[in-house]
Each structure stands twice: as structure tokens, then as C-alpha cells.
Amino acid sequence: MMFDILIKNAKIIDGTGGEPVQGNIWIQDGKVAGSGVDTPEAREVIDADGLAVMPGFVDLHTHYDAQITWDPTCSPSPSLGVTTCVMGNCGFGIVPSPPEVRDTIMKNLSVVEGMDLDALRAGIDWQFENFSDYMGALERIGPYPNLAVLVGHSAVRTAVMRDDAWVRETPTDDEMAIMRGLIESALSQGAIGFASSFSINHVGHGGIPMPSTIATIDEFGHLAEAVGHAGKGIVQMSAGGRGTVEAMEPIVEKIGRRMFLTTGAAMYNAGDPDRGRSWFEDCAAAKKRGNELYVQIPCQPLSFDFTMANAYPFFSHDAFADIKAYSPEQLTEVFKDSAFRDRFRENLRNPVVGTIFKGTWDQVFIGAVAKEENSHLQNRTIADLAAEQSADPLDVMLDLALSEGLETAFLGKFLNVGDEGVGELLRHEHGVVSLSDAGAHLIYMCDAGYGLHLLSRWVRELDFFTLQEGVRRLTSHPADLYGIKGRGRLTPGSHADMVIFDPATIGVSDPHRIADLPGGGPRTIRKPTGIHGVWINGTQVYDGEDYVSHAKGPGHVLRDFAA
Q1: Alpha-carbon span 24 to 39, nearest angstrom
Q2: How far apart are CA 284 and CA 195, in angstroms?
Q3: C-alpha closest to that of 146 among 563, 559, 555, 561
Q4: Is position 242 within any domain?
Q5: What is the C-alpha separation between 527 and 453, in angstroms, rounded?
Q6: Cα(first)–Cα(last) distance of the chain, in Å?
Q7: Paired residues of 195 in beta bridges
Q8: Which one-letter DSSP state was computed for residue 561?
Q9: Residues 271 and 352 in one domain
Q10: In this structure, are 395 and 455 located in the same domain?
Q11: Is the dihedral of CA 194, 198, 201, 207 positive or negative?
């Protein structure tokens, strides 16, 4: 038999956690047809020459919902080894999207997902209004990665309740019924599950709360029942201060489906090391009672690039409540005001639950300065400068920003800092390596290369995981928990989502800025090292240097998931 592709002389890491095997792997019709020492005939022969081959990463937490409408590659994820993306996390999808709410959707995304508003307005091609139309549009676009889509609480609330969605806590009975119907319809049309958020950090344009964040737990639970009724799919919750394991377990028990929690409270915090651990232990206890909850845990520090003109990491503080939509000119006057500074300092002394930044000035770095005369400050921490100047660190940061017209770029490493503490959480059976936020926060960060970071830092440098276990954590483990069939493995019958790489050099670059969004909007991006090629469904999409051009991408729009 003549196969489509033969990859020979490879170190095969199949994603199951088994020992690597030296040999060959052959592909037919976009699927793995076999592997071993045989060398069957094939139309294309790729000599790996001792390099490793593994399944592509399954990224459970992305926000490509808007970007996919103008960028079928979903850059940069496929170049970073990701072959399957789950979109619509935190409830911020872009369907349902009646024409009269589309501008509101874009304004909200520009803030909560840190994207350029002009780029969104120029880039989104509104070929859809409901979930079915959106899935059809994705198939016409032809994505490079495989895509699974969550139906979002905030999106549904906005479509049904309109301007009341972020103001009125309780929907009417009719509104509730319509929202439930929209979610059930989306699940029947191929949604992988239902997503929501209670996070106080999730605010939209003008500082308004994202709609789901003001909803009651009863509303969320009633809507989540649609997943239980469907008999398949998952629930994702950006937990905030209310979405605790204790609060969510009764919902999981009722619907009988897995729930995945995203929260900074479950990340490692050196100042409160037991806090994160408690979330995982609570999940383990729930599992013993028959209720499955998991925590999406990043394998790298939660970092943000930001300027004081768009200070997203500080938005959960009361001092910023009324100024989130201010222009740079207005912010300049506010930041000069001693009353504002005192209010911000008081917030830092008494942070509310769910706050990202709690005054860890030793983790706020000066990334880039606007004036050459300040170049000597780059890579210094605010804490160091404050000690040097015998000044309050808040004043040091604001004074520097004001002196540069609010153009100073800061880098904040706020959570998940400390190898020992983070490692304990990464190993926990109720942790799922995820939370890249790829496709969002483009102004502030790019964590789409989390898988490469795990393989370089946690596998090669720290020897914390074996290579095969590190690969499993990024591939079959998330795919199986989400019911994504035939992904995350290189075993016969699995889809040929593959990465050829060098274990000795695999990694990811530091972030840097480019301006390639529609209309020239900016974003932060990273590049891979050690990746020699990426294939999705047996078609090469990245050659180690750039994307391979295709009239239509080879990715599948996923609609059928394991029960």
C-alpha cells in the first residue's frame, strides 16, 4: 500500500505517557495508520534524522473567536506547537450577535481581552448572527488548527437582555428561558460546552462589568443544566471570588458533567502558598464524592505587559472603577492627584478577593522606556528603584509613567512565580496545564507558547517531568478530559496532528511587539525554537520558519465530543 506520508528515523513520543520509541510513523487520509520499524512506501518521505515527533498540543483556553474571522492561521498558536484550540472561554464569545449589539461586543472585547478596537472593527467579518451560522462561517474560513467552541454566558446575556445585561442582576423568567434555549441550541449544533465568569477583573468598555459577572449563582446553575441535559460537554468558569469549589460542586453534582475552574486564587502565591493548594485539594475531595472539578493551571508566571494608559492589571482596584475608559489626557490629570494615589495605596493594603496585583512591586519590571535618557532603567524593578530613591513604589511608577506621557511599558509577574510551589500544583491530578489566553490580551502578553515553556523549563531544565509525561500533560490529558476524540495521541486511528522538534533546543522566545492586526493594530507575540515542522490532520502548516500557505486550512471545526 502507498501511504501519504512516512516520517522515518524519529523518536516517537505518542502522547500516552509511554516510553519514547525510535522508529517510523506513517500517515494516510489525515490519520496515523501505523508506527514501528517498518518503512512502507509513501508519496512523501520525511527524514526526522533523530529528531522527536509528538502530538500537537491541545490548548483548552483560547480566545480566537474574533481573530479567526480575519486570520485562519490563529497566529501564533500553530507555530508554537498547538494543533487544537478551544475558544469562547470565560463566556466572551461573539455569538449570538444581533446586529444592534455588535459594536458593544467589540467595545467589551477591546477591554476585557486587551485588543485594539479599531482592529476588531476592521477585522471581524460578521457573516453570522447565531451559533449555527458561526460554526458554518468557521468551516468556510478553513482554520489551520482544529477548533472547538464554547457557548458563552456573557454573549448570550448580551443578546437577550441588551443594555440591561451588565446592569440588572436577575433576568425575567422569559429572558432566562430564552438564554437557556440558546445554550441548548448551541450544544446541539456542536458547542463543546458552556463558559462563564464571575471574575471582578472581567470588565468591558467604560468599566462596565461583563454581563455574567453580575449574574447570580442560581442563574449560572440553571443555564449550566443545559450541558447536563445534552449529556456531553464541559463547563468552564472563570471563578472570581464567588465561583469556589464549594459553590460550584452542587451544580456539578446536579448536571453530572466536568467543570473546569480558572482563577488566580488557585495559582501559586509565595505570600499565601496554602491558598492555591486548597483549591486543588477541594477538587480532590469533590471527586471522592463523585463530582469532577479541575483547575486550569498555567505552567509559567502570570505576566502582563502594560502601560498606565491601559493598566488592565489594576482594574479590579476601586481606585480605577471610574477611570477605565479615560483618555490618556484624562488619566494624566488623575495620576497627578494625591487623592487618587492615596486611594490606590489603600486598595493595595486591603485588596478584595480576585485582585491580580496586591503590591508585589518586586515583580513589576520596567520593560521599555519611551525616552532614551531613561534607558538605564530597563529591566529594573519598581521595588529596587523605590529603595534607591527612598520613595513609595507607587509614586515611583506613576511619576515615571507621567514623565514619559504614559508610554512606559511595564512587565508585571504577578502570580505563579516560584518553581517549587508552582511545580506542586502542576503535578496535581486535578490540575490541567492550560490558560494560555491565546488570542486575547494582545496588548499585554502572549502566553500561547506555554507548551514550549513546559518542555524547556519543566522537562529539560528542571527535570521535573519526564519528556513523555510533559508531552502527555499537553496532549492526551487535556483532550481526554474535554472529550475531544482522536486528538492528543499518535496511535493508529488518531488524527495526524504532529510536531517534529528537537528536545535539546525546544523553547519559546521572549515576547515582542508587532503591528499586523487589521488596520495596523499592535499585538504581543512570541516565536518558537527547536520546532522543525507542524502538521494538522496530516497537512503541514508550519515549516520551522513560517506558515505554509494553503487556500484553506486543514483544521477541523469540532462538533462531536465524547460523552
Answers
A1: 7
A2: 22
A3: 555
A4: yes
A5: 11
A6: 35
A7: 152, 236
A8: B
A9: no
A10: no
A11: positive
For residues 297 and 309, state if they share a domain.
Answer: no
Q: State yes or no: pLDDT of 358 exceeds 90.
A: no
Q: Can you give the three-state secondary structure of 79-109, one letter per residue?
A: HHCEEEEEECHHHCCCCCCCHHHHHHHHHHH
Q: Which domain holds residue 333?
A: 304-413
Query: If you count them, how many residues does the chain have?
Result: 563
Residues 444 and 403 in one domain: no
Residues 191 and 290 placed together within one structural domain of the fold: yes
Q: State residue 67's pLDDT score.
A: 97
Contact criterion met (CB below 8 Å) for 93 and 135 = no
Q: How far is CA 405 from CA 128, 328, 371, 411, 479, in A?
A: 41, 8, 10, 17, 46
Residue 27, CA distances (Å) to 3, 5, 43, 386 in order:
6, 5, 10, 59
pTM reported for the whole predicted model:
0.91
Nearest residue to 412 (alpha-carbon basis) of 264, 243, 248, 212: 264
Residue 513: pLDDT over 90: no
Q: How far apart are CA 287 and CA 56, in angstroms?
A: 29
CATH of the domain at 281: 3.20.20.140
- The answer to whether residue 25 sits within a structural domain is no
In a domain, 471, yes or no: yes
- On the CB side of 436, CA atoms within 13 Å amount to 32
Q: Among 204-208, 229-233, 235-239, 407-411, which stretch is predicted with the lowest mean pLDDT? A: 204-208
CA angle 330, 331, 332 (to 5 degrees): 90
User: Helix, strand or coil for residue 12?
Assistant: strand
422/442 Cα distance (integer angstroms): 25
Any residues with CB less than 8 A from the CB of 338 and at least 6 apart, and which?
A: none
Same domain, 423 and 447: yes
